Amino acid sequence: VARLIAVPSGTFPRRAVRTPVVDDHAASQPLTTNKEMVAMPEFNSGENFPVFPVFLLIDVSYSMIGGPITAVNECLPQLKEAVGEDPTVGEIARVGLLTFSDKGTTKLPLSDLQYVDLPTLTVEAQTNFAEAFRVARREIDASMLALGKGTRFHRPVLFFLSDGFHNAPEDWRAPLRGLKDPHWRFHPEIVVFGFGEADQAELSEIATTHAFMAKNVDPAQQVKEIIPLIVSSIKTTSVSLPHSGGGLTIEPDLTKFTPLPLGTV
Amino acid sequence: LELCDNLVCLPDTKAEMMAAKATAVTVPSPTPALKTTPPSAPTTRSTDVVVHVHVDTPASETVAFTALLLAVMVLIGVLVIALRLRRKPVESQHAQHHLAGSAPRPPVVGAVSSAVNQRLDTQDILRLPSVQADAGQVGPFWLAAASAAGLAHLNRGKTGQDCYSYLLADDGRSVVAAVADGLGSKPHSHLGALTLTRLLCRELAGVPFQRMVEAPRDHLARAVQSASDQAENVVKLGLVRDVGELACTIAFCWIPQPGTAGGGYAGRVGDSSLFVLDPGGLHQVFRGDDGPINVVSASLPNAAAGTALELTQIDFDAFSAAILVTDGLAGDLLDSQTIREWLTDRWARPCAPDGMIESLRYRRQGSHDDRTALVIWPSSDHRRGGDWDVTAPAKPSGSAPRSESGRRRRAGATQHDDLVVKRLSRGSAGNISGPPAAGSRG
Asked: What pLDDT, on a 0 to 100 scale, did the predictor assign at position A159?
């Protein structure tokens, strides 16, 4: 390394700088040299495997009682099956399960579903989106940091499922802005699924890339259509992740889902 | 009857034989004394039983010795034949592995599943080969490259999206090379990778040596922008509807003939990368990004390519190899010590095309991206070499330290010029003719 070249004069930046070079001014600047860049190894001494983090944020407010929560518990094992069936998914996808009502709860931290059992969800109290977004940010941050320094990761994806609307005095948009903060290293791609009495305008605000409203009139049936779509999306996205440009792959049956326009917070 | 009178029947047991031997009757020459043993033990005179005969003369010992020798030789022959027969299947198995490119076996790292689909793209007529490889002399360098579609594409029956290209500069005084990685989100990005690597190499190869040395940044940036602009022609041909469908990341290098003061240059747009190899191991030239690996920071074509262009200057003479890689491979090099050691070992010396393909055939948990590597070794390495065969897979070896004497030789530009002139006059540039013989200076 010490034999690396040096350029005529001047200091050596510690990293390559993305400098415009087409304009005359930039063209006159000295080239970046790599004397210290090369000397700064970024190699991991062990084995770090890339991770595709997926979080499910599920509404377990009182309105989910009966058919919907039963459908959720029936369909969630499909996630585990998908991971077990497809090696390209199982090698990379890690799933975390979060719920919210009047409080946010981590039911399952980011895990390899091949080695854990999914918990059974039960209904709780009222719907508070602010709690949902707070627990999502907290858990995503903790989970990603827990992966260890140097672990390569794909952009996290958060699937948000709700059958209702925000029903608490506090403002939910501030926590949502925190979750969507583009300067946050782990800011997720948020995909929203609404069913039952969900407010479409709120759903549009929450989503970053995709928002859908289920068409079926039966909430339990709606859940049974949503979760397989999520499973399919995780599978498809996992195998197309390399250079997907950060985009989640999701292909809903438009006879069952209505795409919603994306709003801003 | 006369003959039989001269026979002595002996017992079977050794003790009795020894006892009988003492009393054996020796018949004078010309008839040798014979000892016969009946099937039964009793020692009697007999005229009707001759079972086996021991000729009790010096000639009989010679015969026995010869028989023993023959038996040993036959035994050795049988053993040799058995060994050869046993070896044949091993060799043919080895040959099969060789054809499949799996000998010696590449490493498997982490919890990987063998149940991965491997489907070819049967829908895209403009698909790329799922495996590409080259190796040969390019000017004063030995260049080997390979590109293999990743499991993410093979699993879905989609074409790989990586490409590489190289050219000897028009004036023969430098070599340019590029690798590109099409964005998975763009359906025709493999065409972008294919087109842009070639366009960029052509642009860089057209820059005269002296002009590049005098204003490298200007010429490198112009070459990138020009290549990016010419990608529009793919749209004009009707192969894609929008130039954005060609989006890809790219890394390239311009390597002057050895001994050139000031070294060479490398650049990239996006997260394809360049590593260099020396006896101390592998070194990364461009710093990595700590953001999500599936979010691309920059790509070509780009109307303002210069804004995303990273450039650096490197003394390639200081290294035993320069390695351009796409990001799938870069991630494995950075994150896996096993893969890093495997590839470093494989690329420590110049290798043949199948050696390059084999080097990319490792399996690593979560590593499903296309893999492309282009390795350039300075001339001194293959001049010093000779213990490798262009027709054989690359032999694993330790580091390939360059000798100090070689380095000192390289310090003299005149000697290098001689070397280059000799190689070029031999017509070896771009000709896959194999390395020179051991000790040859070309």
From this structure: 93
pLDDT (tens digit per residue) in B23-48? 544 444 444 444 444 444 444 444 44
Residues of A in contact with B334 (CB under 8 A): 42-44, 152
Task: Compare CB distances from B314 to A34, A39, A244 and report the shortest one's residue.
Answer: A34
This model of the complex carries an ipTM of: 0.74
pLDDT at B46: 44
The answer to whether residues B248 and B255 touch, using CB atoms and an 8 Å cutoff, is: no
Q: Which residues of chain A does B341 touch, with a Cβ-Cβ cutoff of 8 Å? A: none
The minimum CA-CA distance between B341 and chain A, rounded to whole Å, is 11
End-to-end CA distance of chain A: 50
Q: Which residue is it, tokens 């049967």?
A: B122
**B273-285 pLDDT tens trace:** 999 998 888 888 8
DSSP chain A: -TT----SSS---SS------SSHHHHTSPPPB-HHHHHS----SSB---BEEEEEEEE-SGGGTTHHHHHHHHHTHHHHHHHHH-HHHHTTEEEEEEEESSSEEEEEEEE-TTS-PPPPP---S---HHHHHHHHHHHHHHHHHHT-TT--BPPPEEEEEESS---SSS-SHHHHHHHH-TTSTTPPEEEEEE-TT--HHHHHHH-SSEEEEE--S-HHHHHHHHHHHHHHHHHHHHHT-TT-TTPPP----TTTEEE------
Within 8 A of B109 by CB-CB distance, chain A residues are: 47
> CA-nearest residue of chain A to B328?
A242
End-to-end CA distance of chain B: 88
* Single pTM value for the model: 0.70
Which of B120-124, B195-199, B257-261, B395-399 tops mean pLDDT? B195-199
pLDDT at B92 over 50: no
pLDDT attached to residue B240: 85
Task: Give the nearest partner residue to B217 out of A29, A42, A48, using CB atoms.
Answer: A29
Q: Tell me if A20 and B304 make a contact (CB, 8 A cut-off).
A: yes
Q: What is the pLDDT of residues A180-195, one digit of tens each?
A: 999 998 999 999 999 8
Cα–Cα distance, A121 to B171 (Å, whole number): 71
Of A16, A42, A185, the CB nearest to B312: A16
